[in-house]
Fold these 2 entries.
Entry 1:
Amino acid sequence: MHAESPSARSGTSKFRPGEAVPTGIALLRDPHLNKGTAFSDAERDALGLRGLLPPHVFSESEQEERVLAQVRRGATDLDKYMALSALQERNETLFFRILYRHLDEMMPIVYTPTVGEACQKFGHIYQRPRGLFVSIDDRGRIESVLRNWPVRDVKVIVVTDGARILGLGDLGANGMGIPVGKLALYTACAGIEPRTCLPITLDVGTNNESLLADPMYIGLRRHRADGAEYDEFIEEFVEAVQAVFPSVLLQFEDFANNHAFELLQRYQDRLCCFNDDIQGTASVALAGILASLRITGMRLADHRFLFLGAGEAGIGIADLIVSELVDGGMAADEARKLCWFCDSQGLVVKSRSHLAAHKLPYAHEHAWTDNLLDAVRALRPTALIGVSGQAQSFTGPIVTAMAELNERPMVFALSNPTSKAECTARQAYTWTAGRAIFASGSPFPAVEIEGRTLVPGQGNNSYIFPGVGLGVIASGATRVTEEMFRAAARTLAKETSKAELESGCLYPSLARIRDVSARIACAVAEVAHARDLATVARPHELLPAVKARQYHPEYHRYA
């Protein structure tokens, strides 16, 4: 038996026309094709499934209802994560149907904050392999390892070396949960076909002694490679990716600061790649800032930003703010003077020695102080942005000082997971009498204060990277540029409704994420076409063409 062509309406394509469909047990064990109890009587006869399934044919809605009940019965969020992971391994379409239709409820399970706990315990909950593990012991044969992947038309790779998983640090090979989760959001949020998504973990060892001592740890039992050994391994990996998947979008994820900036600089002009921790975080933060201007009536140039944390996320956000200001006519040096940083040693100023290279552009002339509260009082910032991974570092006195300086202080506590947030939404609103413009990296519930219900916005990168990926695929872009992330931020900021802004939320409802991602994809594609980076002809009407590419989790009819 051979498959029919998938419908143009659904955009689904679990196999290619003319490709043989497995039958019997082999079909039930293929998560891309399996429908479980939803196989019709005719399909059961045609595909050798009679007797391999219970007799009753269930509808998709009935299957969804059963699985939702199973997931919700989980005693902990990790139990729910494992139930959803098991579903993804046996019935991918049903998994994405549930994720897509219940994104508000399920995204915190499949990604932050629960994925952080899943990574910490990955070796203890490991069931089946997913994605590719490429270890430093594979040097000299990485291309052949990549060719073991059964799909050739891979569109997106998310790769990590597990060095800096969320705010949890070095989790080594256990970090595979991050690429898997990110790619689930590429599909759920933007409609990128799941079979074209490939998660990869680069195992170069770990310096986490508790993992090295854990008998259930799944990775190499050695300390991390670095220096020339590391660089040569990454170079071979990138060359292998270009050879095996020449048109793929490569997303670097959760690399340590000492490698993240260097890798982005080294490869961004050689292949279609980006670093989500630097550029995706920057774009979603800039979108929140631009949306806040609609609340305050301020201009971007009226702000002074103080960052707690001077790593990938903080520098990435500042760089994109500067780029946006320069695009508006400000000199780059003047724009950088609006961005200030505090790191673990205090205020980043010119008089400090031994500053990392990525901090130097933001080391301004000023007296040094060793604490954030004094920096707030001295610099009088309008916006406080936390990207430190240090829980509760935005204390009551610090946020109160922001409220004394500003009618509507901006407080972004962006560190993930929730346990690492610089403050909670309730704290920010309470300490400012409800005047704070708040956003966080992980979700917080609505807060009742002074007769108002305030809805904190989650500045989650899932608002950005899936749409950027869709735009790259739709245009056949050969590079990902800073201009694309600015275009994505501007588009996202416009999508937040007036009612959402009035409730205190800087980002649109996740219920609209597919449409929002499609519009971001259009903005990214327009940049690709304008800058001669596109390899696909621009359609007359871009938005309908982009939406037509989106995967929908619908079962294929076999008979």
Entry 2:
Amino acid sequence: MIGKKMSLKQKLISLVFSVPLILGIMSFGVLEIISKKVTQQEMHSFESNSRSLSDALGAQFYERYGDVQTFSLSPTLQAHDRKVITQSLNTFSAMYGIYDLIMVVNAKGKLVAVNDKSPDGKPIEVASLYSKNYSDAPWFKSVMENKTLEDKDKGFSGTAFEDVHVDPYTSEVYGSQRLGNSFSTAIKDESGNVIGVISNRAGSRWFEVAFKELYRSLKNLGMNHNDVVLLGKDGTLLFEYDSDPKSAKLEDSKYDWNQLLKYNFVKDEFTAATLLQKGESGAGTFLDPREKIPHTTGYSKVTGPKFIDSVGWGVMVRNSSSDEGLAELYLIKKAFYVAFGMVILVSLFLSIIFSSSIARVLSSLAERLTKGSGEVALAAKSITDSGQKLSESVSEQAASIQETAAALEQVGSMLKSSSDNAQKSKSASEFSRQTSEEGKKSIDQMIHAIQEINLSNDTIMKEVDRGNAQISEIVKLIQEIGQKTKVINDIVFQTKLLSFNASVEAARAGEHGKGFAVVAEEVGNLAQMSGTAAKEISSLLESSTERVEKIVSETKTNVGREALAGKQKVDAGTKIAKQCGELLDQILSSAENLDSMVSQISVATREQTQGVTEINKAMGQLDQVTNQNSGIAHTTATAAEQLSREAESLSGMVGELLSVVNGGKMAKTTASAIKVVTPKNETKVVIKSPKKESAAPSSKAQEKPKATLKAVAPVTPSTPADSGLGVPRADDPRFEDL
């Protein structure tokens, strides 16, 4: 069935094109097999790199483990001269270049000596270290309690090891965070007794060099997007080295303190780290949980005869670029795809040329016939399209005219209603203006009354001040009485004194002075009574003065506060009254403007009503011209019908010839493209004038007026007359709403 629908050219192209396509598919399968083999080799290479890094770390660890024991045997450490020991430690630090500090501590934890020069020979300030006691330090306790890191089967014994950490002593001395380890062992005398501890504080340089060398070898192989990772026993990130892929040189180590010693690959479920924790080694492609991209990863436990397995280190060699790890494989695939594409293009080109040369002869005759029938069909189609467009335009124009006329009547009715409403608005505006003027007068009267109240309050305040002044004079009078009372007290005192003197003189006179003594005693009693009365009067005066002053102060304060509150309220009322007056002035001004605008709207509405009447007359004349255009469209459709029948007959003959050359499907398509279908029913356009409706606005007046529109024009060549996609018939339901 498919072969019958294909043209001769298509059959020939399919035959020639299928041979290289089948060969290409077979080659693609072979390439995939090779790709898997190369991928396996690349994974083995990543695993080998991780194992070589593991061996390099083991060799370095073995050296560092033995260095501290070698230093402990130095005779200079037995000396009692700090300067001699310090010089020896400076020599060790400079020779090895990886020990930032070498500390010698006695058996009680006190620092005996430490190098005072860095490995590059620069002086360092170590005075603060001598003030500390190291008896509680983990490395000191491990050595003194003989809890060193050991593996006697491999020959490791006697050295305490601290895993990678930020060394507090080197960080303090060098003034920045320092990453490293410590290797510590006992210092013994000739009798074998422990007399102290030596601790080598090794910077991370001792293992970083192995990472950098591996990175350099990978970069030389064209792999630039690498990172090499050192993991602790629990999966914690101890060290990570990478470099800028665009840089030709390797960069120095960079420490991300937000990740280092804090981030845990195992907890973040990185597959390679989980396998490392289980003691496995290998390679694979795993999704990195931090960057969310796949990494080709080789992973291996650090082990061997020169490393203590209980340390638990693991290494990962990773590459984040899929193009670098398998660069050669991708080049082979790319070359294959290019070659396969070229073969396909050449095959397609040759098949097209070969099939075209055979089909060209047969197509020549069909093309000449197609050209003639096509021109006839185009002419018939052009006429038919023009008639259809004219008929549609007339129908749409008639409907638009009818709707416009009805809308204009509604506009006229609405304009008349607007004119009446404008007149009513003018009356309402006049009433609003008059009311505003009366309100303005009332506000002015209220402002005047408030001002008079304010003046009255001022008068009251003056009277209160006058009363306060009079009370103050009374207080002064009472104070003067108090002063006079003090004078009486002085007289009483003098009288008592004279009475006492008189008594003394009467006693001296004996019998002759008894009468005088009685008089003196009575005078003393009177003075006593006068003094008591004077004191009571003085006390009453003081109490009265205080009460009067308090009453005056409270009265003055209360009256002042109330008067001030009243004044504030009067001021607020005055302010609000003024604001009301200003607002009424604005309302009055707006009412006058509104009155003027309503008058202008009323005049404009009357003029618009007259203009709409003139437009209604013009629409009636346009209605007559539209009926004449409908008759012309009917005549054009009749002529197009005859031309369409001739074109259809010619297209049938051309279709039979093309079916041989182009196949059944192409023949049908061409025939349908040339075929012109003629209309069966034709009617004239009839337009009914809309009925006039009431001028008053209502819900019926807002509806579109209905009219009967019946029109037919020639149908488009590619659409049957009854399909509903060409020009509608007279009973077409699409005209119901019109």
